[in-house]
Design brief:
Length: about 200
């Protein structure tokens, strides 16, 4: 199809090709797994202390459990010693999930592709055996901002207008494409479409 599909899984390309029938592809690119990883890495500032505390809690709780003779301690301390390790398990699992989030982001990036056609912006990814496709019509985009690194890889953020939250306060809706190669070219072609000039 285009050079932007070179590193995209073949199954994703084949299924997306069927989805885009009748549309002209103007730009395509896979998000950078490295950029996706580092975009999620700041969560470690919170996740690592959380996980360390949770593991510490679990270690103390297990030590109390195995140090208690449940057969000789009816109810009371024996029951609490058994409950505390169970109480800590969800917190450990949450910590593991938070620490693993950057790796999850990178894995998702490898199974994703961004596409600009003459009709819409598309993010497609494989979720197991299912194809997930998110689309944005260029007419919905109110503003665009670009953050570009030295190698031309960057983030393109689309402002999609505002909505009101449960308190009635206006909240801007945004969508970001992170780790986009040659992000300036994508922005230029998108702006051409938004101006009605094609590409």
């Amino acid at each position: 199809m285009t050079r932007g599909f070179d590193s995209v899984p073949r199954e994703l390309v084949a299924r997306l090709t069927r989805d885009l029938q009748g549309e002209r592809i103007l730009w395509a690119g896979q998000p950078s797994p490295r950029a996706a990883f580092w975009a999620g890495a700041p969560i470690w500032l919170f996740a690592i202390p959380w996980l360390a505390f949770s593991l510490g809690w679990e270690a103390i709780a297990l030590a109390a459990y195995f140090g208690t003779d449940l057969g000789k301690t009816p109810g009371g301390a024996g029951l609490m010693a058994a409950i505390f390790p169970l109480f800590g398990i969800p917190f450990v699992l949450i910590g593991i999930g938070l620490v693993g989030k950057p790796f999850w982001n990178a894995w998702r990036a490898r199974r994703s592709v961004h596409v600009l056609t003459d009709k819409r912006l598309v993010t497609a990814r494989l979720r197991g055996s299912a194809l997930e496709v998110d689309s944005i019509a260029p007419g919905r985009i109110m503003a665009i901002s670009r953050l570009e690194g030295r190698e031309g890889i960057g983030t393109l953020t689309f402002s999609l207008g505002a909505f009101r939250d449960s308190d009635g306060d206006p909240v801007e809706k945004r969508e970001s494409w992170v780790g986009v190669a040659d992000v300036k070219t994508l922005e230029d072609r998108l702006r051409q479409i938004m101006a009605g000039g094609g590409a």
